[in-house]
Design goal:
- This is methylmalonate-semialdehyde dehydrogenase (CoA acylating).
- GO terms for molecular function: methylmalonate-semialdehyde dehydrogenase (acylating, NAD) activity.
- Keywords: NAD, Oxidoreductase.
- With 497 residues, this protein is an alpha/beta fold.
- 37% of the residues lie in helices and 22% in strands.
- It is built from 16 helices and 23 strands.
- It has helices at residues 41-58, 63-79, 81-92, 96-113, 116-119, 155-166, 180-192, 207-215, 228-240, 263-275, 298-305, 326-341, 377-380, 396-405, 419-428, 464-470, and strands at residues 3-4, 7-9, 12-14, 21-25, 32-37, 124-129, 132-140, 143-147, 170-174, 200-202, 219-225, 244-248, 253-257, 285-291, 345-348, 367-370, 387-393, 408-409, 411-415, 433-436, 452-453, 456-458, 472-480.
- The strands form 6 sheets. Strands 15-16-17-14-13-19-20 form a 7-stranded mixed β-sheet, with helices on both faces.
- Helix 2 (63-79) runs antiparallel to helix 4, helix 3 crosses helix 4 (96-113) and helix 10 (263-275) packs across helix 11 (298-305).
Length: 497
């Protein structure tokens, strides 16, 4: 019997009354493993009303208590780390190693949420004028919501609701309908950690349910991670309703290879950063820019990529898992075919990949193109698969110009032994997250995830101090007290009770 995924409203797991359900499949077999509801309008309204009612109590809970909730939660997440990774692997197809990394990066954000008090301290100036003091208070917004993607079903929800709730807000989570099981287990553990009823609600569905959240006046802030068209839609729609928005979009991440770089480090890093997690991550390196003579290493790169093979989640020899769906695989294959037709050289073709025992999986082997130009669709579009494209330039300046002309600005890296080249690159590149001899420069949670340009719509980014500012508002208070009003006389004795 197929499992029906619950809603979580008012502190209770409940079955939806909907007649509209979505099948959840295992990408390695395409077998249906669960069904998830399109929440009804009544259920959506219940979740938001309950979140609003709870907010008026939760915002007044001592910040130390809110921090302790997060400390208990991170402890439970660590205890159930491997269990969560296995659930995640079943619905995403990720290898167990990738799945554990997904869970762990989320746990690190929850740990940072336990430090919420220091991140909500205001500022004070005494005597801004005679006998007048001014100070600022950091206060929660109200009800916030998060709309999360399929590719990181543990990490990205944990980017959002722990920090928002620790800051004093309540939260409505709408996980990806493709991977709801991990999110629901995260919620079960949050309840077990002692979360008060109503601080977190979970609803499921598609565009209709998302539009309901975007338009509802109770929702004050929207966090989103996903594709460029949807991120743009989320941002434009939400801001039209005067909501605060952080919408993380697509990417085309370049790695620049200088001729003086360590060849072995370059090749190993490019292999892992391009096809790891089947390339289904917004920080994957999907473009290698070879400067000068470093282009001679493309053959070695093809040799090493050819050694990587996909497989099921518990195959210890598998480099990565399947793509999330048949539709996702078909889209990547179409782009590979377009690359060939447009004149790129396919050094390694993974379209005929098979995995023994799993004939129905969404498999795609490592694929490598050379001779790519910037007008080809495999360069212009985010492929979101295990595909790496190689471009060749003569100088570092050429590489910087090429990347800065690309519309995206999520992440980039440079491999070089020259400090001056590295400094020039980090200073001039118009990308939010830069790695120097680090292929995927995802920051730890005490910093923020800072994609730029077409990779982000909004102002304040995920996790770190910026996320706390995103989920809060600043109130400035100016006070004046008159010394003439100080009482005098015998009645000023302090009475002890």
């Amino acid at each position: 019997m197929t499992k029906s995924v619950s809603l979580f409203i008012g502190g209770e797991f409940c079955q939806s009354e909907t007649k509209d359900w979505i099948e959840v499949t295992n990408p390695a077999t395409n077998e249906v493993i669960a069904k998830v509801p399109h929440a009804t309008t009544t259920e959506m309204e219940q979740a938001i009303v309950n979140a609003e009612e709870t907010f008026h109590e939760w915002k007044n809970v001592a910040i130390s208590e809110r921090a302790r909730l997060m400390l208990r939660y991170q402890h439970l997440l660590k205890e159930h780390h491997d269990e969560l990774a296995e659930i995640l692997s079943q619905e995403t197809g990720k290898t167990i190693v990738d799945a554990k990394g997904d869970v762990w990066r989320g746990i690190e954000v929850v740990e940072q949420a336990g430090n919420i008090a220091s991140n909500m301290m205001g500022e004070t100036v005494e005597n801004v004028a005679t006998d007048i003091d001014t100070y600022s208070l950091i206060q929660p917004l109200g009800v916030c919501c998060g709309i999360t993607p399929f590719n990181f079903p543990a990490m990205i929800p944990l980017w959002m609701f722990p920090l928002a709730i620790a800051a004093g807000n309540t939260f409505v989570l709408k996980p990806s309908e493709q991977v709801p099981l991990t999110a629901m287990r995260l919620v079960e553990l949050f309840e077990q950690a002692g979360a008060p009823r109503g601080v977190l609600q979970v609803v499921h569905g598609g565009k209709e349910q998302v539009d309901f959240l975007l338009a509802n006046p109770v929702i004050k802030a929207v966090s989103f991670v996903g594709s460029v068209p949807v991120a743009k839609y989320i941002y434009q729609t939400s801001t039209s309703y005067n909501k605060r928005v952080q919408a993380f979009a697509g990417a085309k991440n370049h790695m620049v290879v200088m001729p003086d770089a360590n060849k072995a480090q370059v090749v190993n890093s490019l292999v892992g950063a391009s096809v790891g997690a089947a390339g289904q991550r917004c920080m994957a390196i999907s473009v290698a820019v070879f400067v000068g003579d470093s282009k001679e290493w493309i053959g070695d790169l093809a040799t090493e990529l050819a050694k990587v093979r996909p497989g099921v989640w518990n195959d210890e020899k598998a480099g990565y898992g399947p793509l999330i769906s048949k539709e996702a695989r078909s889209r990547v294959v179409r782009l590979i075919d377009e690359g060939k037709a447009q004149g790129a050289k396919c050094e390694l073709d993974g379209t005929q990949c098979v995995v023994d025992g799993y004939p129905n999986g969404n498999w795609l082997g490592p694929t490598l193109f050379s001779g790519v130009t910037t007008d080809m669709s495999i360069y212009e579009q985010e492929i979101f698969g295990p595909v790496l494209v190689c471009l060749e330039v003569e100088t570092l300046e050429d590489a910087i110009k090429l990347i800065n002309e690309n519309p995206y600005g999520n992440g980039t890296s440079i491999f070089t032994a020259n400090g001056a080249a590295a400094r020039k690159y980090q200073h001039e590149i118009q990308v939010g997250q830069v790695g120097i001899n680090v292929p995927i420069p995802v920051p730890l949670p005490f910093f923020s995830f800072t994609g730029w340009r077409g990779s982000f719509y909004g102002d304040l980014h995920a996790y770190g101090k910026q996320a706390v500012r995103f989920y809060t508002e600043t109130k400035t208070v100016t006070t004046r007290w008159f010394e003439d009003d100080i009482p005098t006389g015998p009645n000023m004795t302090i009475q002890l009770k």
